[in-house]
User: What shape does this take?
Amino acid sequence: MTGSLNVALFGSKFMGRAHSNAWLKVGRFFDVDPVPVMHTVVARNAGEVDQFARRWGWQHSSTDWQAVVSSDDIGLVDIGTPNDVHAEQAIAALEAGKHVACEKPLAGTLEDAQRMAEAAQAAAGKTFVWFNYRRVPAVALAHRLVAAGALGRIYHVRAAYLQSWGGPETPLLWRFQGDVAGSGAHGDLNAHIIDAVCFVTGEEIVTVEGAVEHTFIEEREILAGTSGGEIAGAGAATAGAKGRSTVDDAVLFLARMSGGALASFEATRLATGYHNANRFEIHGERGALRFDFERMNELHVYSLDNDPAVQGWTTVDVTRAGSGHPYVEAWWPDSHGLGYEHSFINQASDILTDIGGRQPPFALPDFADALQTQRVLHAAIESARNRSPVDVADI
Ligand SMILES: NC(=O)c1ccc[n+]([C@@H]2O[C@H](COP(=O)([O-])OP(=O)(O)OC[C@H]3O[C@@H](n4cnc5c(N)ncnc54)[C@H](O)[C@@H]3O)[C@@H](O)[C@H]2O)c1
Assistant: This one.
């Protein structure tokens, strides 16, 4: 296949910027086929989205996603909108014959996620979900090491996604509204580490043995208009009244994995002192691995194959192209450091590779994979509310 692919992006804020940057840069750093064309960006505010289009180089802007989704001009619909609209936008795009790349969590509710996976199965277009952390070189390397048997049988997994922006001063953004977000830290952050752990270990989560969820801050300032800047709504005007937060601030759960490993997961936006600590530790019979996104260019490796006299954790700088580190060949000379945005650009490259009919270097999550993650999220909430274990197969 040699050609181009017209992309329509829905959403022009946080993910709107991350995805625009990815479509803009991917063809400069990777040899892609098809080549993406930044055709149309869609958001709710006409003035804002028009300005956004000009800034990022989108050819058109619109506030009418239904018209864009059915346009013959569009080949790929990229969804970066809040969770409650993923289903209707993705299903409409699939029914119109488009490929769809959707942000995580797949949806706010299990029912929406199921409908999306069913639509994907019936559609001609391909589906992708932006579990972008798979494409952080250290995480992809961890996957490769486990697949090569470096850890042997896996005994323990410890995963946590710790942020701290959700304190009482943060207003009632959509992320705190259950009917829009579906859940709080759980769907936002546990979704990422469930996907990452399954990707790295090659195992599924089969049972949630127990869970707790908690809402520490029950009321937040209602917004007066726009949602303000950045993820925590800094600078947003508030209405001088409070409304109920209807999502969790933190969810912790314990799980068993298909290979027999025991795993713990923790997601919170109230981990004072941590800002984006997306981390996992994996212990196996031959060695161990640990990763923390706050030090994203490092993977810590422990191997029992090393001489006992020098056994210890090794900090691997994963930005050495000559060492075969995933994705870094497309970037800079050894040890010139990569960032958050590179994971999206790497994923954009793999999406284009897949659409072009070739094999990406690492598995891309599709709607069926993301539905499995959504089932685990749902099982954890059931487990917390019923105070009992839940088999994911029963969800
Ligand atoms: N992969 C990641 O690391 C990551 C990080 C942050 C957010 N996300 C996910 O991305 C999605 C968007 O999050 P965000 O932080 O960018 O949100 P945001 O609030 O910053 O931006 C939402 C955008 O969607 C637009 N929008 C809302 N409803 C719409 C509609 N009906 N039609 C068209 N446009 C609409 C808004 O105008 C805005 O431009 C969520 O699903 C979130 O979970 C993923």
About this structure: The domain at 133-339+371-384 is CATH 3.30.360.10 (Dihydrodipicolinate Reductase; domain 2).
